[in-house]
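Hi D.,

Good news: the full-assembly prediction came through. Inputs first.
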Amino acid sequence: MLPLELTLVLAATRDMGIGLNGTLPWTGLKKEMAYFARVTKRVPPSSPPPSQQQQPALNAVIMGRKTWDSIPARFRPLRGRLNIVISRSAPLLLFPSATAVENAETNVVVMAPSLEQALAYLQQQHTSSSPSHSRNSSSETTLGKIGRVFIIGGAQMYDAALALRETRRILLTRVLTDFACDTFFPLAALQQNVSNGDDGEKKKKMAGVEEEMQEVEREGGEWKRRGQAALDAWAGEAVPAGVQEENGTRYEFQMWERD
Ligand code: FOL
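Then the structure:
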């Protein structure tokens, strides 16, 4: 079975806050949101053999039901991406028609009752619709018509995804300005390495963090921040480097990977 690779995408405050009252804690980060849209849309380039080159049709974005609800109606389904919504009340995996992936531009949404079922669906897309998987120059595995697979939230989805070995990468937008939050990213291993200063206090505040870090270590996983060149190469663009500022909010684009 093809190892499918998952990338988490999120924006989080220094203490890993990602949400407030069912929506994002901040407003007015237009360029940040544009980055999210570009990166999740861009399919990785295929590489040789050129005769068999098959560009994936589009990337997939997997989200929990509450995250789906949080996206403004006019923006959902997120265009140019296969949208997969996880909901326990999804009666069954709703298989779109055979042409659904090609037609995803025209608002196809797949619902699945669990992340595992969603991944099984994506695997099936590969085995049923792709004669051979393609590889790009960095040997990234793609799934035929499906390019990259992103987990776009929320906390429950990130939590489920972090438990999977398939999750290899986190595109983290570190928001450096403080915002009130009631929802947090469920892993603070990043926080410890990233924030300058008062780690101790925050670490105490977040229960279960230590346990989670140990769990990751036991699995043999280890998250490391990659440099700008690696981020640019993976994102397929020159990602704005260093601290950005929009409407008085400061943030930084980062990429983390685990072995
Ligand atoms: N990751 C990052 N880096 N920033 C985020 O804001 C973010 N948000 C979510 C998940 N990962 C993220 C979940 N929330 C839209 C709205 C909320 C949302 C995700 C996406 C949304 O409307 N996206 C449109 C862009 C619309 C626009 O141009 O303003 C899209 O097409 O992606």
